[in-house]
Amino acid sequence: MNTALTRSLIELEQHVARDGWDQGPRLFALADTAALIKAEPRLAAALAPETVEMAGLAPLRTYTSIEQEGFPGGRALDEALSGIGWPETVDGAALVVERVMLPPDAEADLPAESDGVNVDAWAAAHPQRQEVRIAVGVLRDGSRDCALRLRSRDTDDEVLSGPGLVPNLEDALAQTLQD
After folding, report:
1. How is the chain split into domains, by residue range?
2. What is the DSSP letter of 47?
3. Can you tell me whether residue 41 is helix, strand or coil?
């Protein structure tokens, strides 16, 4: 587990949470904070003092999130991600999205799209649905992690984290880092 990535995603989710619920997807580049300050010393003034201080404490590593404005521009998420590529100076990528999740036992009741049922609407109306905000991040070294907040437990101390919570989203985001 990459604790710097975990810490970064939890902070990122909390940052996005300040804007409330019902937001569109938000995409971020992740840059090693120490390398970013070294390359652009003027940026240190824009960062929180504790972030700058931690960036100088080797071997601790921190990541700075840089939001990519205008994402996804009205396109489907998978389509929008497939068109993203990052320069080598970007150490990783993070995506924050809101989704409706269902318990595993609800999958047996899932209607087929061929039945003419809007699956998204069906899931949104399901009595066991959970609305969640997911911050997923991947690094060039292969590290992956997620931070997840349930709308029903909307406090910073209730944010869950762990790798593999949304593997398909992790895979799609990791593809944006491929050459």
Report:
1. 3-175
2. S
3. helix
59 cis-preceded (ω within 30 degrees of 0)? yes
In single-letter form, the type of residue at position 17 comes to A
Q: What is the C-alpha to C-alpha distance for residues 148 and 13, in angstroms, rounded to an integer?
A: 8
Torsion of Cα atoms, 45 then 12 then 59 then 166, to 10°: -160
Whether residue 94 is predicted with pLDDT greater than 90 in this model: the reply is yes
Three-state SS across 99-166? Answer: EEECCHHHHHHCCCHHHCCCHHHHHHHCCCCEEEEEEEEEECCCCEEEEEEEHHHCCHHHCEECCCCC
Through-space distance between the first and last CA atoms of the chain, rounded to whole angstroms: 24
pLDDT digit string (tens) for 114-173? 677 787 788 788 888 889 999 999 999 999 999 999 999 999 999 999 998 899 999 999
Residues 48, 45: Cα–Cα separation, whole Å: 8
Query: Could you give the maximum distance between any two Cα atoms of the chain, in Å?
Result: 58
